[in-house]
Design goal:
The protein is of the alpha/beta class. The chain contains 11 helices and 8 strands. Helix content is 36%, strand content 19%.
Amino acid sequence: MTAPHNASLKRSARRRWLTLLGLAPLLQACSPLRLINATVPSNTHTVLRDEAYGTAERQRMDVYLPVNAAPGAPMAVFFYGGSWSSGERADYKFVGEALASRGIVTVIADYRLSPEVRYPVFLQDCALALRWARDNAQRLGASPSRLFATGHSAGAYNAAMLALDARWLSEVGMRHEELAGWAGLAGPYDFLPIGIPAVQRAFNWPDTPANSQPLFHVPASAGLKHRVLLLAAKSDTLVNPQRNTLAMAQALQQRGTPVELELLDRVSHTTLIGAMAPPLRGLAPVLDRFSGFLQQRAS
């Protein structure tokens, strides 16, 4: 069989997957993510399920371990999106597998959601998850000095706040300098005033403090040695990339923080994270950019 014929078969298979999944419409809901998860291989990783980082029901996480991890591997704690009112870790198996397949110990953490809780409780949960990751890194084959906060959409907000606002990690006995860096995919970093009802509820709008916004904390974070990756869909209609991703990148760069930035074509707010899954990786190099960033060693 010739190489061009192989490439043609791969393209045809990918088109069939895109047709089956319905792409963007399916990615808008939780259950279609489980269809994507059905494509995840099982020979690239092992999973430690239902690890507790607190006593609440949703203070649980799954840990994806590479099959052949190098000693001192990087460790990513990933927070999913959902307007701080929906989401569960099982739906993001494809993210855990994708990063573990590249040698990264990956934690997919649940956290308490609105309306059960309001800001800043979900940040406090995420801080506890990061502390658990730091405390257990060596046991899991990772290096505590290569710990990253990461996330998509609302989860990218959580990661940014933990990295930039010292309050949340200090509450759990950590310094935000202990993070090697953070990665935000399609994150909302400056979203006042709030117009979306679910987000209004999560942030007690209109009594939302200005310091709830990640961009508010960039001046105070000047001098941090964090590395930062910011990815977004160029055509994102849900979280404006100019106001959020580009503005965050520019603010950090002006204060000397190294930032890797890319706005990607052919993806939307939802398919940006969906491109981590095996059948959708051809849409955009999200996995390559994400895993490459995490694998870098400090200079």
